[in-house]
Every structure is written in structure tokens, then in C-alpha cells.
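Render this sequence as a predicted structure.
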Amino acid sequence: GKHWTVNEVRALIRIWSDKSIQQQLEGTVRNKRIFEQVAARLQKFGIDRDWKQCRTKYKNLKHEYKSAKSSQDSGSTSKSMKFFNELDAILGHSTMEQASKSDN
């Protein structure tokens, strides 16, 4: 597909950082409906992406974040990513919560 621009990714992350979207994404595996909402919101920013593109980008960003995060945790600073701080604001706390849940 068409390459995502920085603005498009920023808009996607902004929508994704919405608490209700996060809760929906955390609570489900079959998330086509959620990504249709995300795509509709992107459309309002003038960004033309279908739900599949949104889901793929979301998965890729999440994967990239996790590998950047784990290389950071192991003390390596080489692996970094463009939107790390934005994603850390969204994902950083949720992975902590899950970790503390499994501790109990």
C-alpha cells in the first residue's frame, strides 16, 4: 500500500491514544469494527486509509515499539523509533499494568 506519512502516523496515534479506543482494542481480538471507526476518524483529518491499512499500521507500530522497548530494557540504545515517546505514553502504562496483574 501507499507509504504512511509522518502526519498520517501522528493522526493515527492521536486517535489510538483516545481512552475509549484503547479500551476497545485491549478488550477484543476481532477488531475490524474498531479500525473502521479509526479509519472514519482519519477521514475527518483528510486521510484516506481503510480499516485494514489502519490495523496493519497499528500492529506494525506496536511491534516496533515492543522491540525498541525491550532493547532499551536490555541496556542497548541502538534500537530507537520515530514515535517511541508517543507510543510509550499509550503502551508504556498498559504493559506495566499487565505485568503487575500477572505478579499477583
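Summary. The chain is about 70% helix and 0% strand. Residues 51-73 form the longest helix (23 residues).
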